[in-house]
Amino acid sequence: MNYAQARWTDDDDRYEPLLSEKSSETVSTEDGPLPDDLTRDSLTLPDVSEPELARHYTRLSQTNYGVESGPFPLGSCTMKYNPSFTEDLAASPDAAVHPDQPTETTQGTLELLYRLQDYLGRIGGMDAVSLQPPAGAAGEFAGILVAKAYHEHNGEDRSEVLIPESAHGTNFASAAMAGYDVVSLAGDDDGRVDLDALEAAVGEETAALMLTNPNTLGLFERDIEAIAAIVHDAGGLLYYDGANLNALLGRARPGDMGFDVMHYNVHKTFATPHGGGGPGAGPIGVTDDLAPFLPAPRVAESRGGYEYVDPDRSIGKVHGFYGNWPVLLKAYAYIARLGDAGLADASAKAVLNANYLAEQIDYEIPFGPFHHEFVASAGEQDAADVAKRMLDYGVHPPTTKWPEIVPEALMTEPTEAESRRTLDQLAAAFDAVAGESDETLASAPESTAARRIDQVRAAREPRLSWQSLDE
Amino acid sequence: MSEDDSRGTPYAPHTAATTAAMLDAVGVDSEAALFDIPESVAFDADFDIPERSERETRSHVEEILGRNDDLTAFLGRGHYDHYVPSVVDDLAGRSEFLTSYTQYQPEIAQGFLQALFEYQSMLVELTGLGVANCSMYDAATALGEAATLSQRLRSVSGDRVLVPDLLRAGKRAVLDNYAGGPGLTVETYPTADGNVDLDALRGALDDDVAMVYAENPTVRGTIEEGLAAVGDAADAHDALFCLGTDPVAMALLEPPASVGADVVVGDASSLGTGTAYGFGLGLFVTREAYLRQVPGRLVGAAEDDSGRRAYTLTLQTREQHIRRERATSNICTNQAWVALRAAMHAAWLGPDGLVDLAESCVTRARDLAARIDEISGVRAPVHDRHHFREFVAHTDQPAEAIRADLAEEGYAVHAVGDHEIQICATETTERAVDGFVDALAEVAR
Ligand SMILES: Cc1ncc(COP(=O)(O)O)c(C=O)c1O
């Protein structure tokens, strides 16, 4: 595929200037309604007209690549198509309510949240759901706090959380934030949890094992029942990282596998747009035993309507208000649109696409059978360079260099949204790059708005604002 | 594409024929054969979720949302409604922005990176501090992150965090959860007539305090008058001074750096988003000296191979995907798109517009309080302070009854004490003010 991203270069031989370089103004705040000692003296900010503003951001958007621009097989991120109609619903004036409005006047919002709690519970096989956490990592933090509160309630002081080495960085960080020591578990030769290593690691100190299933290699942890038994026998809980739930919709549920607590990655599985880094939402689901500890508040039915209740032994709050409401609304709309058949089909097509794409590419894929994503190895090539070069073929590259168990990893998740023809183009991009020299790769990309960026220097000499550019 | 056709997800392009051909290419005869799930944990029931056409789904969701009452909300306390210009929706809604993700490949994501760099820069201007990250989830989690930052800094010791007694309960509850992991204890210090009680704060301070938190404006809308002294008091005990505020307020009030703030947190969604049920944008700005300890993503200027200035996520060794359990935070997905919107809105306003907006927050609150003070059975404002956007009024009648009666009349206010209601006024409630004052006069008697 031929590709050239928009590239705006101005006379000073730089790309689209900063707003501050276009026009900046200093205004005095004197003679305002407050005494001078309570105010600043002046404020300097960009000062552009609306037409200039529109052009600035339109140009910036043209130098940005999204799911609607082309394939986006960023592994672990589930960059599926984000249905437009959910944006309209989120923009509805009826959705614009203030969080402190009394609940008897926000019954629509509560009903929608209640229904979402219910749907998510059914999808995950969980007894109770909280919608409060504003992202996956926040869900992990909340879920681990729930586990901690549960143990403490039972008079147990456990200090460790076990996490497979191949897990996402947030798992480690979330457990540590909750005050736990992290014990990292090496995997077995097949890329799954090593039961012997797990047996050796669990014990009285084990508060929980955090697991992604399918794991970050796309592999289903076939021994999940044995894993659950080992953890439960030691008195620990099993935490499910829902980042990869798009592989399992309608085919398997964390609750049925023995998981006690999970988060849903709403912006992945349920197609809410990732917004250049966020917002997301990370609701958590738990079994009945853990329900009393869920974050506050939850929506419950009451006298023909809905109300908020704080679970009896709630861990408290993880968001200042009620979580990322517009994101939750969009997720509900997506689930309500697809229903049983659509959700199961989404997973089926996501898994089919990953398997089909894997079949077409020249890079080696050491582990399988995989589901919605696979991790190929760039072999002798540098995975980061491979990714840069793929940009020149008009596709977004995979996630690179993670999980580390695969050398020069190319973690690839095409999602259900791609057609066979697009997958063929994607495969062609992989294969073209596979045959190219290190020099070609090192000088890539050429077709993007900016050429290869010197990240080392950016980190060594941080310039994090336009104010710092003149220094 | 037929509306009522149902053959699975409408968001996958496969026809039966391509599916068959793809299965063939993979070498299996069914989709089911692709799943490596042991029988014993397989799910073979239904969720019992009906599928709907897009039209049906829209009506279904609209019908549910329609059950929200149409109230004019004079509400604030951390979530504010300012008019968002159409151009923000239009530009932020461009799919290149909306459907992109974290800029792991900066060369193809310059647009969003530059927009976030501009957002960071605006916050640097507003705060006077050197480093702004490109978002936390909301004000409450940003405050939690500030507390853990204070604990990581070697220049700060101790394990107590001091917050005002008037702190919003939800924010406090989130802070407690963030503080618990690293073993910090959160304690309150008293306020006097709405603002920090400086003497009481000094009394509560000791060398075991890691961070002092104050807000400007406060949750009751009062404007602080002695923040520099708060900063000095914290400093005297090597405690971090964390200030909670928002970008509109900062356009007018004393810049946080000049009162000695070490960290600025708050909710920046007051620009660009409007009322969205508490959906936030956690701002996080701090001193350059703490750069290596900052949570969240940072965008930096860089150079590309053509020698031109470009942008990239930087200093990522602080973050969870590299540093894991030693990361400065667990945050990954953040509120980048909300930050984009806030930056667009600020740029649309420009410095004049932003200062005007901030000044109107002072005068609207002042004027409305004066009008309400005329009503018999109501005294406003309760605090003898300057106010920003909102203020507390005393009511002779029980506040809860006033709140409920006003709701009947189509207006929402906060009941914040037995005989105290809180009222927030911005440009979006302008046309409702007369009716509101009449209604209050009616119910407050
Ligand atoms: C496997 C896995 N777990 C957890 C997360 C964290 O989720 P979030 O980014 O929503 O905080 C991610 C996301 O990137 C992930 O891929």
Topology summary:
The complex is a heterodimer of chains A (471) and B (445).
Chain A (H helix, E strand, L loop, with lengths): L18 H4 L1 E5 L13 E5 L3 H13 L22 H6 L16 H18 L3 E3 L5 H18 L6 E5 L4 H9 L3 E5 L9 H7 L4 E7 L11 H10 L3 E6 L11 H4 L3 E4 L1 H4 L14 E3 L11 E5 L2 E5 L15 H36 L13 E4 L5 H9 L7 E2 L8 E4 L7 H15 L3 H5 L12 H6 L11
Parallel strand pairs in A: 4-5, 4-6, 6-7, 7-8
Antiparallel strand pairs in A: 1-2, 3-9, 8-9, 10-11, 12-14, 13-14
Chain B lengths: L15 H11 L27 H12 L6 E2 L12 H7 L2 H4 L11 H18 L3 E2 L6 H14 L7 E5 L4 H12 L4 E5 L1 E2 L2 E2 L1 H7 L4 E7 L11 H10 L3 E6 L1 H4 L12 E5 L14 E5 L12 E5 L5 E5 L6 H4 L12 H38 L4 E2 L10 E6 L3 H10 L2 E2 L1 E4 L2 E5 L8 H12 L1
Parallel strand pairs in B: 1-15, 3-4, 3-7, 7-8, 8-9
Antiparallel strand pairs in B: 2-10, 5-6, 9-10, 11-12, 13-14, 14-17, 16-17
The structure holds pyridoxal-5'-phosphate.
Textual characterization of the structure:
The complex is a heterodimer of chains A (471) and B (445). With 471 residues, chain A is of the alpha/beta class. Chain A has a domain at 84-337: Aspartate Aminotransferase, domain 2 (3-Layer(aba) Sandwich). Chain A has helices at 19-22, 50-62, 85-90, 107-124, 136-153, 169-177, 195-201, 224-233, 254-257, 266-269, 325-360, 383-391, 420-434, 438-442, 455-460; strands at 24-28, 42-46, 128-130, 160-164, 181-185, 206-212, 237-242, 261-264, 284-286, 298-302, 305-309, 374-377, 399-400, 409-412. In chain A, the strands form 4 sheets. A 7-stranded mixed β-sheet of chain A has the order 3-9-8-7-6-4-5, with helices on both faces. A 3-stranded antiparallel β-sheet of chain A has the order 12-14-13, with helices on one face. In chain A, strands 1-2 form a two-stranded antiparallel sheet. In chain A, helix 5 packs across helix 6. In chain B, the strands form 5 sheets. A 7-stranded mixed β-sheet of chain B has the order 2-10-9-8-7-3-4, sandwiched between helices. Chain B has a 4-stranded antiparallel β-sheet with strand order 13-14-17-16. Chain B starts with 15 loop residues before the first helix and ends with a helix. The longest helix of chain B is centred in the last third of the chain and has 38 residues, at 336-373. With 445 residues, chain B is α/β, with parallel strands linked by helices. Chain B is built from 14 helices and 17 strands. In chain B, helix 6 (139-152) runs parallel beside helix 7 (169-180). Chain B has 2 domains: 72-82 and 349-444, Aspartate Aminotransferase, domain 1, CATH 3.90.1150; 86-343, Type I PLP-dependent aspartate aminotransferase-like (Major domain) (Aspartate Aminotransferase, domain 2, 3-Layer(aba) Sandwich). In chain B, 37% of the residues lie in helices and 16% in strands. The interface between A and B is large, with 196 and 189 residues. The structure holds pyridoxal-5'-phosphate. Pyridoxal-5'-phosphate (PLP) is lined by residues 76-77, 135-137, 168, 170, 212, 216, 241, 243, 265, 280, 282 of chain A. Pyridoxal-5'-phosphate (PLP) binds next to helix 5 of chain A.
